[in-house]
Amino acid sequence: MAYSDKVLDHYENPRNVGRLDDSDANVGTGMVGAPACGDVMRLQIKVDGDGVIEDAKFKTYGCGSAIASSSLLTEWVKGRSLDDATQIRNKDIANELGLPPVKIHCSVLAEDAIKAAIADVRKKQGNTEE
Amino acid sequence: MQLPIYLDYAATTPVDPRVAKAMAECLTIESNFGNPASRSHQFGWKAEEAVEDARRNVADLINCDPREIVWTSGATEADNLAIKGAAHFYHRKGKHIITSKIEHKAVLDSCRQLEREGYEVTYLDPDSNGLISPETVEKTLRPDTILVSLMHVNNEIGVVNDIEAIGEVTRRNKVIFHVDAAQSAGKLDIDLEKMQVDLMALTAHKLYGPKGIGALYVRRKPRVRIEPQIHGGGHERGMRSGTLATHQIVGMGEAYRIAREEMHEEARRTLALREKLLRGLEDIEEVYVNGDLTHRAPGNLNISFNFVEGESLMMALRELALSSGSACTSASLEPSYVLRALGRNDELAHSSLRISIGRFTTGEDIDYAIERIHYAVAKLRELSPLWDMYKDGVDLDQVQWAAH
Ligand SMILES: Cc1ncc(COP(=O)(O)O)c(C=O)c1O
Ligand code: FES
Question: Do the chains contact at A37 and B308, CB–CB below 8 Å?
Answer without folding.
Answer: no
